[in-house]
């Protein structure tokens, strides 16, 4: 069977072919032309480039002993099905995610014991004060929100994370561009040049975090990163006293795909950082990522969850209980945005009017 080779245009991404008349590779979509020899080095690299391979071994977490589980209860939220672990002194509580009451379901069982825990460094009062500063710092939040939003629930919660370590070999092809502009008396010109850039290297990653709870939005957790693992200690139930702990519902095995994606992006970014020529853009085009000696740990990370109510709507905020980093979504004032864009429109209108007057057009 004949083998068909296909090349993509670096300019527009369309399929390009060899043009016999021009003796060049030519794109039928944007009319760009390329020397065929420019693709030779890329072909040689791709021919020997191995596909991505991620090898994760071992297991994370430990087995609980009977004395530890005897002091731990599990609560289940009937509204969102979230499972919360608390010490034996917690008789009833509210779900930190949706604010609804949760009910005691029984003693802790059927889950692994964490390897590590990062203790809380910020207390409840610090979380409340940070929320107030965060809301007041947002220029486009409605003024009424700042005055009327009510803090309905604040919970210190240990969130389960799978932490992945690996040794990684990476090879990445990037498409880079430079842009040159100039003008003459009639036209403005823009010339974009495209370059094939290749980088490869070996690196190690430690403690790549993957949130192990479906109740906690992944983007919210990634937004309050990083956590400093240097402050992690061996897990003991004493750190849970007075706090809640989310019971993981995403296994280590099911977290590997997200870990692979984070390793891949991180490796591409590390090699991207070695490209010091002042290109206008540098974009990964193809890569080969090889992970060896992969292993995982199970840890609990401290997070303050704050639920507020504003005119019947719930708003969720989160604060890194170790560093104090704070994130959350706020309503936007249409009046303030309108005033901003209205002011821009007036400013542009004045400039146009002045230019028109100077040219005698008005």
Overall residue-averaged pLDDT value = 78
Low-confidence stretches: 343-348, 357-362
Percent of sequence in beta strands: 35-45%
- In N-to-C order, the SSE pattern is EEEEHEHEEEEEHHEEHEEHEEEH
Q: Please tally the helical runs, counting DSSP H or I stretches of 4 or more residues.
A: 7
Oligomer: single chain
- Structure classification: alpha+beta
Which geometry do the CA atoms define? globular
Number of strands: 17
Integer count of domains: 2
- Could you describe the largest sheet, including whether it forms a barrel? 13 strands, mixed
Q: Rounded to an integer, what's the Rg over CA atoms? A: 28 Å
Helix content: 10-25%
Q: What gap, in angstroms, lies between the N and C termini?
A: 71 Å
How does this structure look, described?
The protein is α+β, with helices and mostly antiparallel strands and 362 residues long. The protein has helices at 40-48, 66-69, 124-137, 143-148, 218-223, 252-272, 334-358, and strands spanning 7-8, 15-19, 24-26, 33-34, 53-56, 72-77, 83-87, 93-94, 101-107, 116-117, 150-183, 188-211, 233-234, 244-246, 281-310, 313-320, 326-328. It is built from 7 helices and 17 strands. The protein folds into 2 domains: 1-48, no CATH class; 56-166 and 201-264 and 293-339, no CATH class. Mean pLDDT is 78; it is low at 343-348 and 357-362. A hairpin with a 5-residue loop joins strand 6 (72-77) and strand 7 (83-87).
